[in-house]
Amino acid sequence: MRFKNSSRIVTHFITNLAALVIYILTMSALATSQQESTIYNFKGGNDGAEPVSSVVAHNDGNLYGTTAEGDNAPSCGIDGNNNPFGCGTVYQLTPPAQSSSPWTETILHAFEGGKADGADPASPITFDEAGNLYGTTVIGGAANAGIVFELSPPVQHNGAWTESMLHSFAPNLGFPSGLVFDRQGNLYGEQNGFPNTYGTIFELSPPAIQGKEWIYRVLYTFSPSLLGGVLPEGGLVIDEDGNLYGVTQFGGDSGCADGVGCGVVFELMKPTHPGGAWTERVLYSFTGINGDGAQPSSGVIFYGGNHLYGTAADGGNEIGDGTVFELSTTTGGSWTEATIYQFDESIGRPFGRVVFDKQGNLYTTTFSSPNGGGEVLELSPPATQGNPWTFTPLYDFSCNNLSCDGGGTLFSGLIFDKGNVLYGTATYGGTGNSGVAFKIIP
Fold it and tell me: Which residues fall within 8 angstroms of residue 363, CB to CB, at 6 or more apart?
């Protein structure tokens, strides 16, 4: 695995769980579909490498995303062959006019690291209504703790995109997540706190004078009591009232991982008056036993009204291979949780966010599989409520068709674009073993 120690921490969470436990304690039949195709092979060097986050579809018909490495900037480290890892990129993938032709990649920004720029973007990007693009990086900036950046599209066709650094994170607050907008144009995100704190939720507000740094404010700091959860991960979603929802990998009122908790789903409630305090409410604490999941890390999404769906990378069966879960509201306003699928070692552990099609089928990924490369899968709801969901494997990224490096390759979720087509990224593999973007027709 070629990840630098500054890159996405998801692999560290899964493969070094014991280290995380010590940290917190001291702080208090597979199917191969013929419908899959690679739409782009990342090459490294001047190109991007290791796409960790999912792609984003825009109304211009293109896909956009980030790579954690690539672009040849020497400031982010040198590999064993004396070649620079690169500091990462933001890229655009343009579909061909004819289906038989290749997709075209355009590098919109090559990060340089240092105090003046970010490095290692590892979370999904987002767009505003004007077509500007926003995201975060893991390192770089004034304190080398990551930045929030904006990329503005060119005024003229084929011109260069313009990057602005909106905020430079302070040290010791952990890696930032992706961002979400509210209706007023404010941005919200998480910092997971690793390895010095318990995690925070922050807000970035546009400045009164254009061109100035955005206004950063911590809305909520997770507590060392662990009951409200610790280490928020996977990004936030926002409801119509402006309340925020997410997950933490640890904490809660159950005893997973030697007492540090199995993680929670939380709501951060907006204050009733401007400037008031945001309030956390734990919607569910995972138990990791009796089929329940543990250690969620990919966030949640709304689907079908007041229903939240997500994945947990642990818990479920006796081995602890993870689950897909649903949270539903009751008439009294409380939330109930149900496990809708338990994974086993023949499939791998889930890690990406879930996504639904128009028929109510759910799709997600596992970051590894017995064949070494991760899997894309579908879960179909039962005709009668309460019966099991139906599992369908869509594609297994085995080492026979993707060169595997260090185990799992699918760290991100999927998206649907026009024509009921799924798109995603694999962090490793492809012709240069620098990752691929792919599509699947379910």
Answer: 354, 355, 356, 357, 376, 377, 378, 379, 394, 414, 422, 442
With beta carbons less than 8 A apart as the criterion, state whether 318 and 344 touch: no
Torsion sign, CA atoms 18, 290, 314, 29:
positive
Cα–Cα separations (whole angstroms), residue 170 to 87, 142, 167, 424:
19, 8, 9, 32
10-residue mean pLDDT profile of the chain (442 residues): values are 39 38 36 69 91 94 95 83 88 91 95 95 95 97 96 91 96 95 96 92 92 91 93 96 97 81 96 92 95 94 94 89 94 90 84 93 85 84 91 79 48 87 89 88 88
Q: Does residue 3 sit within a domain? A: no
Indicate the pTM of the whole model.
0.90
CATH of the domain at 257: 2.120.10.30
| Total number of domains constituting the chain | 1
Phi, psi of 20 (to 5 degrees): -65, -35
